[in-house]
Design goal:
alpha/beta; Rossmann fold; 8-stranded mixed beta sheet; 8 helices; 8 strands; globular; Dienelactn_hydro; Dienelactone_hydrolase-like
Length: about 300
């Protein structure tokens, strides 16, 4: 049995550092804990903003799904436009908090753009609903024990599912947030089927972990898809210097990638349910994402 990684101040992951050092000034403007849970949000990320974005299902088919994997069925959430044949497929790689309402809403937002969007719950084997965990100390050992090799096969299974359901996997894209942003880089280095991807503040340098063989920066020479990296200048876990190092590594390897760093934006600036939300940066990042996926013919 593989030992779980030790979690101390020296080995905390970049996405966790960035999250835990952003705090609201007061509780005003936030849901009560019971209201947040009732609305489907995680509490592990801190208080939940009252003014979250809510995307309806008008014109969409959406809901829970089961994706066949080698050792069973992986839960997931999908949204796609009604009556549209062969829509492009976009995988949504979630944060460490499980498949909660923010990720589901993002999936619906992507469907409104004409895609068959799927968010796989690749932490399902942990035997507990991560969205119900409130303490980071309980959550981290679970998510940090997820092997990259298993993650890749889960994402491959998601693509297979989408194709079987009528999605056009010749126009396959992927977006991810926080740890999901890291997973975007990992999958882009592996999958020759991926046409384009967007990483929202995904860690580029990993904390020591025996089940993560290579960090995104180490995988720079292996990138097979063009990736857009969207980062916050004030992210306390992912330094601008790390972003610049990744950019240099990709350039040296002749890989296609672009980066945008938002001045003053913290980690999690797109997460409209968190205190870290920055609307101006979030809105621009969403437009950048659309333009990138359109440029590489995932959208449009």
């Amino acid at each position: 049995m593989t030992a779980e990684p030790i979690l101390d101040a020296q080995t905390l992951d970049a996405d966790v550092i960035g999250l835990t050092k952003v705090a609201p000034l007061s509780r005003r403007g936030f849901m009560t804990a019971s209201a947040a849970v009732a609305a489907g949000y995680t509490l592990a990320a801190g208080p939940v903003r009252a003014e979250v974005i809510k995307t309806d299902t008008t014109g969409l088919d959406a809901g829970d799904i089961k994706i066949k994997v080698a050792d069973g069925e992986m839960p997931g959430y999908f949204a796609r436009p009604k009556g549209v044949a062969n829509p492009p497929v976009v995988i949504v790689a979630m944060e460490i908090f499980g498949l909660h309402e923010y990720i589901k809403d993002v999936t619906r937002r992507l469907a409104k753009l004409g895609t068959f969007a799927i968010a796989p719950d690749y932490y399902f084997r942990k035997g507990t609903d991560l969205t119900k965990i409130t303490e980071m100390s309980q959550l981290l050992p679970l998510v940090n024990s997820k092997p990259d090799a298993e993650l890749i096969t889960d994402l491959d299974a998601t693509v297979t599912f989408a194709k079987a359901q009528g999605g056009n996997t010749d126009r396959l894209g992927m977006i991810g947030f926080c740890r999901g942003g890291r997973n975007v880089w990992e999958y882009a280095a592996y999958s020759s089927a991926l046409k384009a991807a967007v990483a929202f503040y995904g860690p580029l340098v990993d904390a020591p972990n025996p089940v993560w063989p290579k960090s995104p920066t180490q995988l720079a020479p292996d990138m097979k898809a063009p990736v857009l990296g969207l980062y916050g200048e004030a992210d306390t876990g992912i330094a601008v210097a790390q972003v610049e190092a990744m950019k240099a590594a990709l350039t040296a390897a002749g890989k296609t990638a672009e980066f945008k760093i938002y001045p003053g934006a913290p980690h999690g600036f797109h997460a409209d349910y968190r205190p870290s939300y920055r609307q101006e940066a979030a809105d621009d990042a969403w437009k950048q994402m659309q333009a990138w996926l359109t440029k590489y013919k995932v959208l449009g």
